[in-house]
Amino acid sequence: MTHKALRSLSPLPAALLALAAALSFPNQAFAQETGRWSLAIHGGAGTLTRDAMTPEREAEYEAALQAALDAGAAVLRDGGAAMDAVEAVIVRLEDDPKFNAGRGAVFTWDGRNELDAAVMDGRDRSAGAVTGVTSVKNPIRLAREVMADGRHVFLSGAGAEEFARDHALETAGPEWFATEARREALERMKAEQVSALDVDRKFGTVGAVALDQNGNLAAGTSTGGMTGKRWGRIGDAPVIGAGTYADNRSCAVSATGWGEYFIRVGVAQEICTRLRLSSETSLEDLAEENEAGGDVQLTDALVQRVSDAVLDEVADLGGDGGVIVVAPSGAAIYSFNTAGMYRGRATSEGVSEVAIFGEE
């Protein structure tokens, strides 16, 4: 609700109006007063079970997730911007061939690596996204350049590549992105006539969401899509509002899953909008809590419930996957309806953890 709309309501006590104004953008003051920061990351969700994972492979993934988490946490701990932390995380995951983003991206039906990425800044909801790029070493950096340029939000294919050259972004040949494991997955998909879900076992998107000490939120997502994708298919990862969204008034979200369903639900923005508009308490209730010294921030439990409810809608339509969410209160949560999700989170409260399987 805007301040103008609040003024049009009659009559509202002055104290309630002041509280409503404060609640519109609570995170700046809250984070600055506490020095609070939060970070959550993911490396894909899907059919991840211990039976299909050796202890050595599990340790490798956990180490990779921890290294990416530590890179982002270091930025936030030193007072850096949420967007810088998001980029630091995703660049590491794009450069790691274990994840389906940048180096190690899956192959299209025609044997190419086509990359998508998006970023969004919660301060002013500026955003940048790219799809179908083939030579940019770190697509997340290209998405950020699109956002910084400001003339457009979403660039694709040859145009995005030209933009990258104009902005002197680092490029690489096809050999940088290609890995034997991804090539074998495409060959098996064709030979056995199975779906991308059968050969990938997980949705390999990578992402990060962050809250910095100035109370600003940011989100970023990067992916190679689905094995054997055809006809220039685009999933949810680079679509602002579906796979990526950030708004200082509510939350930052990065998604990983069956993109067609996440697009139909508008998962990332849907979570943020519900948190902004459906906080489960009225202004009057919040006023009473405030007078009693209570916390009027979005609670971890509320963020979890809203995220779970939106993922339930995805499941009802037949899709699956997961999200990471950070809220202005510092809540950092995961929600997924798959057997597992490569994930991690770190906060100024001392949390630092990574996990893979659902039971963890």
Q: Could you give a quick summary of the protein structure above?
A:
The protein is α+β, with helices and mostly antiparallel strands. The protein has helices spanning 3-8, 14-24, 27-34, 55-77, 82-94, 139-149, 157-166, 174-177, 180-192, 196-200, 259-265, 267-277, 283-291, 300-317, and strands spanning 38-46, 115-121, 126-133, 154-156, 202-203, 206-211, 217-223, 244-247, 251-257, 321-326, 332-336, 340-347, 352-357.
Describe this structure in words.
This protein is α+β, with helices and mostly antiparallel strands and 360 residues long. 41% of the residues lie in helices and 22% in strands. The protein contains 14 helices and 13 strands. The strands form two sheets. Strands 1, 2, 3, 4, 5, 6, 7, 12 and 13 form a nine-stranded mixed sheet that branches. β8 and β9 form a beta hairpin. α4 packs antiparallel against α5, α5 runs antiparallel to α6 and α12 (267-277) packs across α14 (300-317). The radius of gyration is 20 Å and the shape is globular. The model is unreliable at 1-24 and 280-296 (pLDDT under 50).
